[in-house]
Specification:
There is one protein chain. The protein has helices at residues 4-27, 62-92, 96-124, 134-144, 148-176, 180-206. The chain has a domain at 61-206: Ferritin (Up-down Bundle). The longest helix has 31 residues, at 62-92. It is mostly helical. Helix 5 packs antiparallel against helix 6 (180-206). The relative contact order is 0.13.
């Protein structure tokens, strides 16, 4: 028979090993593998390296990151122009489909600016632009002097042209971005811009408005 003294000695020898094993189990990550992060409604992430391994915001040198900063600034300017033009179209257009599209521009671009671009700009130390670009201001002034079908034609043509240009820029930035958060908003933004482009091209077809790269048959 094993004496009580021998049992006590055996327990004292085994206890340290049991404690070490328990500590290792407590620190081990849960099983099941890493879960891929879902793209949030607000793409800004505090730890973007979780979505893009090896990348951390702010690590790119100033020269490399200049393209990202320029993209964010230009995108915010373009978004503000889309909002102003959309509000103008809601006032001046006499077509329900144009008004609905304009309302969508105001809503979508306002949300993209507030939830996506402004938080990323703040994180990057990029100042928010003071209104649309000079080019967009000229377009706004031009459309302010139009009304009716003449306004609709110019607005539709401008929207098709702008969204084609924006789509190319978003697609390019999605490939070239150094900052992971900028990459996220470029990837998500190109999907939104693509949807907008499809909508406005359908409206152009319905209104028999000729646009670059599209042949519109007469009714």
């Amino acid at each position: 028979m094993i004496s009580k003294q021998n049992l006590r000695m055996a327990w004292l020898c085994c206890a340290p090993a049991l404690l070490v094993s328990a500590a290792m189990l407590a620190q081990a990550p849960p099983s099941g593998g890493g879960q891929q992060p879902n793209m949030p409604s607000q793409p800004l992430q505090q730890n973007p390296s979780a979505a893009y391994p090896g990348a951390t915001p702010g690590t790119a040198e100033a020269g490399q990151n200049y393209g990202d900063q320029s993209f964010v600034t230009k995108a915010m300017q373009g978004g503000e122009a889309e909002v102003e033009l959309g509000k103008l179209a809601q006032e001046k257009s006499q077509s329900q489909d144009v008004k609905q599209f304009a309302q969508k521009m105001v809503s979508d671009h306002s949300q993209m600016g507030e939830k996506w671009f402004k938080p990323v700009a703040k994180q990057m130390g990029v100042d928010e632009p003071k209104g649309p670009s000079k080019k967009d201001k000229k377009l706004i002034e031009k459309l302010q002097g139009l009304s009716g079908s003449e306004f609709d034609t110019e607005y539709i043509q401008a929207m098709v042209k702008d969204h084609k240009e924006d789509l190319k820029e978003f697609q390019s930035e999605a490939q070239a971005a150094q900052d992971p958060n900028v990459k996220m908003i470029a990837e998500q933004g190109q999907k939104v811009i693509s949807q907008h482009l499809q909508l406005i091209e359908q409206i152009a077809q319905a209104h028999n408005v000729p646009v670059e790269g599209k042949e519109v048959s007469s009714r």
